[in-house]
Automatic annotation (TrEMBL):
Keywords: Ion transport, Magnesium, Membrane, Translocase, Transmembrane, Transmembrane helix, Transport. The chain crosses the membrane at residues 6-28, 82-103, 115-137, 158-180, 297-318, 338-357, 377-401, 422-449, 455-474, 518-539, 559-580, 630-650, 725-744. One of its GO terms (molecular function) is diphosphate hydrolysis-driven proton transmembrane transporter activity. Its main location: membrane. GO terms for cellular component: endomembrane system; membrane. This is H(+)-exporting diphosphatase.
Length: 753
């Protein structure tokens, strides 16, 4: 009966999430793309009606033209990117099959199931990214239309619902596919003693999701920032035209990039985190199934399921209970979503643990042969520590990246002495912002490990992602508002429309930074949990062979382990260098193309030009550059642990994973927060009056801030967020191929050093 209860809960909540996403989408579809005749705040006289009717029709046609251009650009890029990904997935699935089968004494069933789950994870990740792009593009222009109307509620709710479609659809789809895969594998591995093999085969699901996330994050990040940096340098810095001005040839590519990078890339990234965290918890805790049954073993999936219900209930706070009625309400409404879902998750998780976990259950210790007896409340506390730790890191991130607080305001004032001091302050701010999040992470890791060993760490990672639907809602909200503002600028709507979308976007920037803090923190815990699962699998393989490898944990003082720990610490820096340079190269191409068009068509810079820029040329540059440049960093992250394990063995892989984790989390936080702070410092200066201390838009102070924002773009939207995937992908790949690594000279690798 309890077994049916768990399965019913998980499948029902997954269907609920998909249904809720569909309802939100239907609400958005009721908004027609039709511009207001004049401004919503203007009086329309009867004599002007015919002229207004004509102007409204022309504006509507322009809105549809821009929307279609952004949609076609995003569609063509994702189609090209996913074609590359599909070829890679098809080829690498064969590698997964043969290496896993060979590493398990030619157990072709395990090889086939692991490869199948890898393909399923990749397809689900691609579907999530594509769905997010479609919904965001569909909603951008409708947010612009609603911003023409009086008040703030309608335009905020449109963007918020667009994010909800992505957030709930991704969570529902991810949980549904993962759990159905588990049930399918259970047909073969039907006994509790065999579920260890079920969970090991399931790790391919996390690998598939993370692989697509890597290419999506890197490719989309290079695309969006090449266009953004190119548009800023030539447009704002050289020629002094506003951001998203229709005269700038790169402006369509910039708006396309928001959808393929910030929406599709982020969706794949967080889907990967969910899949990997769940897989790690299941691998470490599979022995719970022997004593506690299926319900107890799938407790990590149950946490994600009840999180969906919590997120749906809390979404009513933003749209109905406390709707946004003024600019001041926007940021607080988004922040309230994170706080309310975290608070409500605490009693929900405790109830779920008491219902679905036995009064006591045992797991094997990661170090030694002891069995640890756990209780439901201890498991629930680990999840709660993760959820509260995630919220804490998010709020600290807000403090360092929002212009409502001292650090960003100091950064803005540093621009008074030029771009150099802005750069110095911004980099220092990023480094300083690492301190508290790392201390929080350390506390969560220590507390959860003390309570429930490495299983507790994996549950804390699940806790970080318990309100994933809300986190994704807020993450997608930002790019939707950004695009809405860009569309308003390109369609040359009244200035109050752009002012409104800018205010919505500014709040979105801050909450996006909070979302990145969540993503980085969860990635760190997920990576550590995956490392624990890797050690567990090596121990199991070693015990089956009559050996005692990793019985007493990983010895960092082993020369090979320590050597590769240092090499692992280098990987994030090499990856960041490659992706930053890729953005720089693509941006240089974009700058030259934009300047070429201005030189050949000087009338483009007229106040009311009679010709349009060649937007397609800039879209083509971003597309080609991102597809070309995403291959090398992705290949480095995928093949480094694979080749290390094959040639140098499991001790070397252990050092590599720990070094990569420690360096990635520091670098990711500092880069993301520096970039977010530079962006909001620029926006803070733009809000200043011309006769104020910061002199406002177009001043020399503003130009210095634009330089910082331009440098910060790849920091916060390309390299920084992609480092999440570096640590996760290396760890989950090592977990999938753990038996293969052990098969080479009992874990010593081909060289057997």
């Amino acid at each position: 009966m309890m077994d049916i209860g768990a399965s019913t809960l998980i499948i029902a909540t997954a269907l609920l999430a998909l249904g809720w996403a569909f309802i939100q989408f239907l609400t958005i579809t009721r908004i027609s793309v039709e511009s207001s005749q004049r401004g919503a705040y203007e009086t329309v006289n009867a004599d002007d009606y015919a002229e207004d009717e004509y102007e409204a029709g022309a504006t509507t046609r322009r809105l549809i033209e821009i929307y279609e251009a952004i949609y076609e650009g995003a569609e063509s890029f994702l189609r090209a990117e996913y074609t590359y990904c599909a070829v890679f997935v098809a080829g690498f699935s064969v590698v997964v099959f043969f290496l896993v089968a060979w590493g398990t004494d030619w157990d072709t069933t395990r090889g086939f199931l692991t490869a199948s789950s890898f393909v399923l994870g990749a397809l689900t990740s691609m579907a999530s990214g594509y769905l997010g792009m479609k919904v965001a593009v569909y909603s951008n222009v409708r947010t612009t239309v609603m911003a023409q109307k009086p008040g703030w509620t309608d335009c905020f709710n449109t963007a918020f619902r667009a994010g909800a479609v992505m957030g709930f659809a991704l969570c529902g789809l991810g949980i549904m596919m993962l759990y159905l895969t588990m049930l399918a594998f259970r047909v073969h591995y039907y006994g509790p003693e065999q579920w260890v093999y079920l969970t090991e085969c399931l790790t391919g699901y996390g690998l598939g999701g993370s692989t697509i996330a890597m290419f999506g994050r890197v490719g989309g990040g290079i695309y969006t920032k090449a266009a953004d940096v190119g548009a800023d340098l030539v447009g704002k810095v050289v020629h002094g035209i506003p951001e998203d001005d229709p005269r700038n040839p790169a402006t369509i590519a910039d708006n396309v990039g928001d959808n393929v990078g910030d929406v599709a890339g982020m969706g794949s990234d967080l889907f990967g985190s969910f899949a990997e965290a769940t897989c790690a918890a299941l691998v470490i805790g599979n022995s719970i199934g022997v004593s506690g049954g299926w319900d107890a073993m799938v407790f990590p999936v149950i946490v994600s399921s009840v999180g969906i219900v919590v997120c749906i209930l809390c979404s009513f706070i933003a749209t109905h209970i406390r709707p946004v009625r003024s600019e001041a309400n926007v940021e607080s409404a988004l922040k309230m979503q994170l706080i309310s879902t975290t608070v409500l998750m605490i009693p929900t998780v405790i109830v779920a643990a008491k219902v679905y976990l036995p009064e006591s259950f045992e797991i094997k210790a990661t170090v030694g042969n002891d069995l640890i007896t756990l209780t439901p409340i201890e498991a629930a506390l680990c999840v709660i520590m993760g959820a509260v730790g995630g919220l804490t890191i998010g709020l600290i991130t807000e403090y360092y990246t929002s212009h409502s607080y001292k650090p960003v305001r100091e950064l803005a004032h540093s621009c008074k002495t030029g771009a150099a001091t802005n750069m110095i302050y911004g980099i220092a701010l990023g480094y300083k912002s690492v301190i508290i999040p790392v201390v929080v992470l350390a506390g969560v890791i220590y507390g959860s490990f003390t309570l429930c060993d490495m299983y507790g760490v994996s549950l804390a990672a699940i806790g970080f992602l318990a309100n994933l639907a809300t986190g994704l809602t807020i993450d997608v909200y930002g790019p939707v508002c950004d695009n809405a503002g860009g569309i308003a600028e390109m369609a040359e709507l009244e200035s109050y429309v752009r002012d409104k979308t800018d205010a919505l976007d500014a709040a979105g920037n801050t909450t996006a930074a909070i979302g990145k803090g969540f993503a980085i923190g969860s990635a760190a815990l997920v990576s550590l949990a995956l490392f624990g699962a890797f050690v567990t699998r090596i121990r199991n393989a070693s015990a089956e062979a009559g050996d005692e490898l990793f019985l007493n944990g990983v010895n960092v003082l082993e020369p090979l382990t320590f050597a590769f720990l240092i090499i692992g610490g280098m990987i994030p820096f090499a990856f960041a260098a490659m992706t930053m340079k890729s953005v720089g190269l693509a941006a240089m191409e974009m700058v030259m193309e934009v300047q070429r068009q201005f030189d050949e068509k000087p009338h483009l810079l007229d106040e009311n030009p009679t010709e349009r820029p060649d937007y397609d040329a800039c879209i083509a540059i971003s597309t080609k550059a991102s597809l070309r440049e995403m291959i090398a960093p992705g290949a480095m992250v995928i093949f480094t642990p694979l080749l290390t394990g094959i040639f140098f063995g499991v001790n070397a892989v252990s050092g590599l994973l720990v070094g990569s984790l420690v360096a990635s989390v520091q670098l990711a936080i500092s880069m993301s927060n520096s970039g977010g702070a530079w962006d909001n410092a620029k926006k803070y200066i733009e809000k200043a009056a011309p006769d104020s201390e910061l002199e406002g838009k177009g001043s020399e102070i503003h130009k210095a801030a634009v330089v910082g924002d331009t440098v910060g773009d790849p920091f916060k939207d390309t390299s920084g967020p992609a480092l999440n995937i570096v640590m996760k992908l290396m760890a989950v790949l090592s977990l999938v191929f753990a038996d293969t690594f052990y098969a080479f000279n009992s874990g010593g690798g081909i060289f057997n050093l």
